[in-house]
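Feature request, filed as a ticket because there's no other form

It would be nice if the structure record came with a short human-readable summary line next to the tokens. Right now we just get the raw output. Example of a typical job, pasted below so the devs can see what we mean:
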Amino acid sequence: MKQVLIIGSNPLKSSIIEQYLSIGVEGIKECGFNDMRVSDVNEVDELVLLTSPSNGSPIAEDNAALEKLTMVAKEYSNPDGHRPVVHLLLQSQTSLWMLQTMDLPSEINEKFDVYPFTVEDVWAKNLLVQIPGIKNAHYPTLDRTPITKDGDNYVHIVISGLNSQAEAIAIHAALTAHYPNYRPEAQLPLRTRITIVEEGIKTKRDTFIARYQHLFDNSYYRTIDLNTRKIDFHSPMYKGSREDFVDVEWEFVDGTINHPEVCKKIDRWATDRQQQLTFFICHDDDERNLSECIALPRCIYGNGIPVMVQQRQKGIDDALRRSTLYENVLPFGMRDCGYDITLPLVQLAKYLKYFYDCSYGNIGVPTELPLEQVEQAWSDEKSFKMRFSNIYNVMTIATKMRSLGHDAEDADTFYALTQEEIEILAETEHNRWSVERLIQGVRPCTDDEIAEIRTDVKTLKKIYKKKDIHFDLRAFSELEEDGTGKNAQVYDYDLTACIPLIVKTFYEENAHGK
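Raw output as currently delivered:
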């Protein structure tokens, strides 16, 4: 019987306990951080570490939890080689970002299978990621009309506010909103557009851009000051010498979402047949969020455009459901719910990791995903950063299915991809991977580094990769042979071809239309 230890206290605790009980887990223990003992950990299959909101430093709270986990890891004996799952709730987006780009302490990685998250991170995934085979998603997809290879439509995300929740949504949108109609060689390539609107945005914008420096170095973005009517425009650093490879563009607007000039733009956006528009309202004041939401131009509601409004407390759902005008307004961000302890994205990522190991480990492309071997392959991957890379990949499976005419809910009829479909999505996968790597702090090679690596690809590509400098961060059409003599495009083909097997396996073992 599964045993679970819940450490600490947080509004999420009740939801987490209810979830465990609903899947038949009765062995649930609770204790405070100061009461946690190694002997308690030896007896459980999963740990839930719940940091608490405090008036002090959120990062200090997170550091204390990591120090406690490190201390326990040093004494933990791994009975039977078991690595308990650890759900680690952090209070700071900065803490999460640091772990995802710099990895966990080795002592923790060796002893535990850790999944850190913040409430903001959880809600960004809930809003933007569909799980194949799981029906009744609560939030609409960004691509409400699927974007195909020949489509002339694109996704446009508008975010009012730039708090930690807004940043999580913006980055998850950049990680997931990739479509096969992006053609970098076109005169006007169709990119996903992310517009962030906030009065006095420049300081927060500078911090945001600096945090994801390599992403913005290689992206188009502009800043519009509504007071001075000045526009600052930034182009990718290799524009003119290399083909573009980032299919997301950014816009920062210094003003409010209800500013008359912004409202004029909203009127145009809402009636532009090419744009698939979605609004997110994210300020630290829930009352302000609701007020801004209600004051949006009526064309938003008249055209059925989704408006997601951050509300930390439950309460406005019923009132909104009674309104025919605001029926497209959906609250999110509640502090006492939203986290799924079954980790469906992780399970999908495990399948992908096993497929990757077989395909590139001279074992051959697998035709099935045996659970025991899947778990072993995941356990063997000690790099926390690479585990998250697999998670980021599977976050886009449902979107790719939609681009091929399959809904995420018809997982039971999604059998295989044709060669043409694989080729259509392979470039999309490379674009997604490129943005992921840039977000994780990896940069492209300079011209001199490319020339050096070409002299000994097999050796030097790996050396630079360890320095977070990647030879393959470039346009799909410009990819070259790696150390095995294969063009790097082959990896995108294989990672695309495996989608039906992953979806079928996940559906059969878990979903069954629930």
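Something like this underneath would help us a lot:
The mean pLDDT is 90.
Residues 419-439 form the longest helix (21 residues).
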